[in-house]
Specification:
The structure holds 2 protein chains of 2 kinds. Chain A is α/β, with parallel strands linked by helices. Chain A has 2 domains: about 160 residues, 3-Layer(aba) Sandwich (Rossmann fold); about 220 residues, Rossmann fold. Chain A contains 16 helices and 14 strands. Chain A is globular. Chain B has one domain: Alpha-Beta Barrel (TIM Barrel). The chains are: A alpha/beta, B alpha/beta.
């Protein structure tokens, strides 16, 4: 591997020797595909027939009126097949798996969206599929587990470590070092060893390419600010990439969980709690202690509940190109509630972080300003968590009744 | 230094034994007693693993030992202090084994200096290929410590030579794909791979992953210089306690 995927010191490929040859093959396959003009065409074709690309840009008229500032547009990644931007990455990697002639895919999942997307891709392309998911996430995203299994995937509950996303990634690597001859690891975000950060953001860049065209067509001008939530960073990089050279302020929104001061959060780039380290094969900011042991993270949104962050984002944080903020669980639930009521849109809890930050800032902007929010996914997967957050009595009654039915 | 020690030992023994422990597991006191019985039973060198929260190359046995050691309050400084006590007490070489983040956060130069001060001989860092390890290699060289590199069955001949050009002491050959603590098929195929390893370097060869009984060690005589016993001793400690380790080691050759 000649190009080791560094972004001014972040990134790299810190791999056990057993995987080096596998990564060499992956890098080569990806580079060939990238330089093959037919490949991007094949990719956009499949995304327009199997998923719903281009996804629309929705003008949020009621929210705009409510805040009385910037005009608010929403990029509708929730309208992808399986309900999130994850489909973009998964279908792209699926095409590479075909090129490599492998027959099995594995993936980690936090919120379950990446797992479901991978399972659909595997079903469509005829691959065997195993999904690793932390025990905590299995509990909070049970409907997605159900669908993954219906789609023919084997879902393995990870009971190691903190039992969330990072632990599911570790277990995926442990599978991969054993089965790399037949198996490709469909990493779900722009993290991990080179070429994953580059490759995942390459496929996700379709979001920003479309959004840029769409906003120029509708408004004849670029947005002043773009908001995207940041877990690993793939939806954020996906929408930001096309605007990097434009005079547009890019805002990445992390999970402040129960509040930055409480320590129960997943804010790597917007808090002082993270430091540079090397884990899971790459160098970036991690929430870790002074010894380099990873800390527990917290977020109401499983997909943002992660200790590391894309090395590309760490780099763009240091250059100042992207501003990073964090919103608390409570602010996120409030923003979700408002969006549901005002626009009839149901963003995922992950995406609602971007909404919450945009709502904090929209009023202070002028009516000439445009802001763009990336709705990376839809929220119906979060029904259990959201129902708990709203303490919905009718829902609780329904669950009790349902439980009784099963006892009968 | 490490290589010459190994070569002189190899004049007396057909094959050397390297064992592995996770520092602070089950406790530091127990770890000390385990080392004591290993040395008494004739082990030739020992790798001391500094626990890490994300040990990506380790299977369930060593993974759990890492987690329990950390939960029990192990820190990098405690591990370094413990290693110093061990090297002062026992007259065989000791190596550190850990993941790169442990060294990186401690400071590479500072880590190498601490190793030298504690009379350790070298370090195995399984997630640090030489391409990423320039700082590490320089620091190790400055302190005359041995960086141990790893061959795997998927490593092409050319790359084996490349890796060996950075390695000191010996080369750690991973017996198979997968993580630590899973059975290995000691077969003709392994023999072919080891012949490839032997051709790629003049350094002594160690073979690890799945070695757990006398038959495995016997198979390796004449093919490699060092047999590495990792997960099996942890498994025994978990099941039967610290007391059985000496007997187990003696039963291996």
């Amino acid at each position: 591997m000649k190009d080791r995927g560094y972004y001014e010191g972040f990134g790299g490929a810190y791999l056990p020797e057993i995987l080096i040859a596998t990564f060499d093959e992956l890098v080569e396959t990806f580079q060939q595909a990238k330089s093959d003009p037919g490949f991007w065409q094949e990719y956009t074709d499949i995304m327009s027939t199997y998923s719903c690309r281009p996804t629309p840009l929705t003008f949020a008229e009621n929210l705009t009126r409510r805040f009385g500032g910037a005009r608010i547009y929403i990029k509708r990644e929730d309208l992808n097949h399986t309900g999130a931007h994850k489909a973009n990455n998964v279908m792209g990697q699926g095409l590479l798996v075909k090129r490599m002639g492998k027959t099995r895919v594995i993936a980690e999942t936090g919120a379950g969206q990446h797992g479901v997307a991978t399972a659909t891709m595997a079903a469509k392309f005829g691959f065997k599929c195993t999904i690793y998911m932390g025990e905590v996430d299995v509990r909070r995203q049970r409907p997605n587990v159900f669908w993954m299994e219906r789609l023919g995937a084997e879902v393995i509950t990870v009971r190691e470590g903190t039992r969330i996303l990072k632990d599911a990634i570790n277990e995926s690597f442990r599978d991969w070092v054993t089965n790399m001859d037949t198996t490709h690891y469909v990493l779900g975000t722009a993290c991990g060893p080179h070429p994953f950060p580059e490759m995942v953001s390459f496929f996700q860049s379709i979001i920003g390419k479309e959004a840029r065209e769409q906003i120029l067509e509708k408004e004849w001008s670029l947005p002043s600010r773009i908001y995207a939530c940041v877990g690993g960073g793939s939806n954020a990089l996906g929408i930001f990439k096309a605007f990097l050279d434009d005079p547009v302020e890019l805002v990445g929104v992390e999970a402040a969980g129960k509040g930055l001061a409480t320590g129960h959060h997943a804010a790597r780039l917007s808090s002082e709690d993270a430091s540079v380290g090397v884990a899971q094969g790459y160098k970036t900011y991690f929430l870790q202690d002074n010894d380099g042991q990873m800390k527990e993270t917290h977020s109401v949104a499983a997909g943002l509940d992660y200790v590391g962050v894309s090395p590309i984002l760490s780099h763009l944080k240091e250059t100042g190109r992207i501003r990073f903020e964090a919103t608390t669980d409570q602010e996120v639930v409030d923003a979700l509630s408002l969006t549901i009521q005002k626009e009839g849109l149901i963003p995922a809890l992950e995406s609602a972080h971007a909404f919450a930050q945009a709502f904090k800032e929209a009023s202070a902007l002028s009516k000439k300003d445009i802001i763009l929010i990336n709705q990376s996914g839809r929220g119906d997967k979060d029904i259990f968590t959201v129902a708990d957050a709203f303490a919905d009595p009718k829902w609780q009654e329904f669950i009790k009744e349902k439980a009784e039915e099963y006892h009968a | 230094m490490l290589e010459s020690y190994l070569r002189s030992r190899l004049k007396e023994k057909e094959i050397l034994l390297m064992t592995h422990i996770v520092l602070g597991y089950p406790t530091f006191e127990d770890a000390f007693r385990i080392i004591e019985s290993m040395v008494e039973a004739g082990v030739d060198l020992i790798e001391l693993q500094i626990p890490f929260s994300e040990p990506i190359a380790d299977g369930p046995v060593i993974l759990h030992a890492n987690q329990k050691s950390l939960a029990g309050g192990a820190t990098v400084q405690k591990c370094i202090d413990f290693a110093q006590k061990v090297t002062e007490t026992f007259d065989i070489p000791f190596l550190f084994m850990s993941y790169y983040n442990i060294l990186f956060k401690y400071g590479i130069d500072r880590f190498a200096a601490a190793m030298a001060r504690s009379d350790l001989y070298g370090a195995i860092v399984p997630d640090l290929p030489p391409e990423e390890g320039q700082d590490f290699l320089e620091a190790m060289q400055n302190k005359r410590l041995a960086p141990i590199f790893i061959f795997s069955p998927t490593t092409p001949d050319e790359r084996m030579k490349y890796l060996a050009s950075f390695g000191k002491g010996f080369i750690y050959c991973v017996a198979r794909k997968g993580v630590t603590g899973v059975d290995t098929d000691f077969s003709k195929q392994l023999e072919k791979y080891l012949a490839r390893c032997r051709k790629a370097t003049d350094l002594p060869l160690a073979l690890g992953f799945g070695v757990k009984e006398k038959a495995d060690v016997e198979f390796l005589i004449g093919k490699v210089d060092i047999a590495v016993i990792g997960s099996q001793t942890i498994r025994l400690v978990d099941k039967e306690g610290v007391g059985v380790i000496g007997e187990f080691i003696k039963s291996l050759r």
